[in-house]
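Please review this one.

:::
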Amino acid sequence: MSFDYIALRKTKRTVKYKLRKRTEKVLEMINRYKVHEPLSILDVGAADGAMLRQLKNNLNTDICLGIEPSVEYINSRSNDSPQIIQAIGEKLPFKSNSFDVVVAASVFDHMGEPAAFLRECRRILKKEGIVIVTLISPFYDALAVKLKIKEDDHVFHFSEGELARTIRKENFDVVSISRFALPFFGIFFERFFDNMFRAIGMKWLMFYIIAVGRNK
């Protein structure tokens, strides 16, 4: 991603919509699967800290911080953003059993070694802690690349089944895997259409995949 991405997160309607939907869904999963409070949360690939700030503002946390490989992204965070440390997901600079929740929103398929990241998550997560992974549906990603809407910037492409198998292989229990967010980017009555498509069995139309793995 280029540094322009940070500006787009604040100005472009479609990018703002996707960030909002990811944040809403991550919050929903944390509230559904958290074991206790206050929570210790790590956001991996935190960029400018926009999601991280919402997690801190909407959850009962004692630790809420992020990691991000790009110094430029870290320096672009707002003054009220929680701390963001320069690091990569495959080598997390934290002690074992440090966190209740690890979030990897739209970064898992950019990693060179996603399995190594999951192993690091198992190490730093407390017993019963959760890792939350969101990524774009391979169909929509391939379509966007074909239409030249975006570059093919993903190292891996995971279907729901492939993502679940990858998480289970690293000794997590997959407690949830689903699709979310319509690909129409903020249409009127989006929640109504979201619920309608789910009710009639058309969840495959959803843009994102989200999985929650629980540390055994």
